[in-house]
Amino acid sequence: MYPYVLLVLFVLLLAEISIKNLATAKEQNSNDIHLEAPHLSDRTESNRPPIKPSTNVPQKKIKQKISNTKNKINPCKGTYVRTNGTTCGLKEIMIGRCYEYQFVKYPSATNQHNIKNCTALYETFESAVRYKSHCNMNMSTYKDYFDLALAGVHVINRAMFWSGTYAVTHAYSGSGLNYITLEDTLAAAMVNGLVWCGNENHTEGFDFNSCPNNCKDNRWADLAFWGLASKTFAQLAAGEIFVILNGSQLHGRSAFRNNSYFSDFELPNFRRHGEYRVTKINALVLHSPDEKVMERCGEKSLRLLEDLITNNGFEYACKDDPEELILIMCGNQWEARECQIARRVLRQAWDTKLYGTSNSNQKSLSLLMIFYFFLIKIVVFNNKV
Ligand SMILES: *[C@@H]1O[C@H](CO)[C@@H](O)[C@H](O)[C@H]1NC(C)=O
Ligand SMILES: *[C@@H]1O[C@H](CO)[C@@H](O)[C@H](O)[C@H]1NC(C)=O
Ligand SMILES: *[C@@H]1O[C@H](CO)[C@@H](O)[C@H](O)[C@H]1NC(C)=O
Ligand SMILES: *[C@@H]1O[C@H](CO)[C@@H](O)[C@H](O)[C@H]1NC(C)=O
Ligand SMILES: *[C@@H]1O[C@H](CO)[C@@H](O)[C@H](O)[C@H]1NC(C)=O
Ligand SMILES: *[C@@H]1O[C@H](CO)[C@@H](O)[C@H](O)[C@H]1NC(C)=O
């Protein structure tokens, strides 16, 4: 049996050499150019204010906690400073974004008939908020703005909602090219990420130093904009709609939860009748790489969601981790355990594409086959002896 053992050792040596060569070749390749892993954002929320549970405490007279110093220096004049108040250049940013939205980003979606007047839109927004006390606002404050900005819009079969999955949802929606989220509508795109609050005592009518964003006695003040935005967007959604939920929520939060924009402002406002009604709600539940699975379709809060939806006469479907979204999650969490194998398999598929079927992996595979062949021979040989 000695010749066989020698042969096996020889084959093993060959295999190891070829694997080593492969490894060094790969290392050299990856050493040539250093690339960072792709990165979307870790955001699970936008910067809209969190919804606080409503309390049954009787409405007290609204107290102003913000300073009422008149004619505070406007920090936006001169050099730019980051403040906790209204974003410097609010007006210019909003008007600029409005033009960009209509003329650059979606010129084809905009025709002569439905071009919105950006100055008029800004003025409608401004008249709702400027020189007004932030904590006196309510869900009708921005009504005219939304009526104007979203007039004539219907989002059919492409409306996408999200809760606790901001970054992944927006990567997937592709700024409205794939699906349309609230933030992809003109009304929301004009202010997304900006901060503003009115102040009746400021010469500018806006407080550029600090915004309260926490009106103790009037929870509707903080929700005045994003609450109405969510409600209005939900009313425009028609046909099949999609909602991306987070099945890996931490801190006892559930995928579908009370005091979320989806449960409080969107779900209750989907149209149930008429030409532009919602027919089907598709829930997509994501489980983040390297995170625990807390809920799957049909479990816990997702069971509640299903009941709520079907009781309202909509069709319901739920899917855990569609591949289209797994790829985005892995793109963002390159190093996660679940994504490593996928990366390797993709690499192999691309090598085959680049170098054809007779690539190095095939070679090492055939070496492995030879090795097994000899192993079997030895076993058989030993048994005979
Ligand atoms: C504006 O000034 C009035 C009178 O000084 C005061 O009562 C009010 O609280 C002030 N408002 C704000 C938002 O500072
Ligand atoms: C903004 O608020 C944060 C937290 O309250 C505070 O630490 C920071 O100093 C404030 N910045 C300005 C410019 O007032
Ligand atoms: C747009 O609205 C502004 C302010 O309301 C108005 O002055 C202007 O004439 C309007 N522009 C057009 C083209 O209608
Ligand atoms: C909202 O505020 C406006 C002006 O402050 C007031 O006229 C209106 O009645 C309020 N609406 C609600 C629903 O409270
Ligand atoms: C789900 O929530 C967890 C906890 O907040 C977060 O780490 C994770 O990134 C979220 N998943 C997605 C897909 O947004
Ligand atoms: C929301 O609150 C209501 C009333 O308290 C409760 O019946 C429901 O189960 C809650 N929903 C979720 C998703 O927790």
Write down the overall mean pLDDT. 83
Separation, N- and C-terminal Cα atoms: 10 Å
Name of the top-level CATH class of the largest domain: Alpha Beta
User: What fraction strand?
Assistant: 5-15%
Number of domains: 2
In DSSP terms, counting alpha (H) and pi (I) runs of 4 or more, how many helices?
Answer: 12
Instruction: Output the structural class.
Output: alpha/beta
- The arrangement of helices and strands along the chain is HHHHEEHHHEHEHEHHH
- How many DSSP E strands? 5
What characterizes the major β-sheet?
5 strands, parallel
Please compute the radius of gyration using only Cα atoms. 29 Å
The CATH homology group name of the largest domain = NAD(P)-binding Rossmann-like Domain
Bound molecules: 2-acetamido-2-deoxy-beta-D-glucopyranose
Low-confidence residue ranges:
59-70
CATH domain topology of the largest domain = Rossmann fold
GO molecular function, one term: transferase activity
Transmembrane segments: 364-381
Protein name: ADP-ribosyl cyclase/cyclic ADP-ribose hydrolase
Pfam families: Rib_hydrolayse
Output the keywords.
five-stranded parallel beta sheet, membrane, binds 2-acetamido-2-deoxy-beta-D-glucopyranose, ADP-ribosyl_cyclase, 5 strands, Rossmann fold, hydrolase, NAD, 385 residues, phosphorus-oxygen lyase activity, globular, 12 helices, alpha/beta
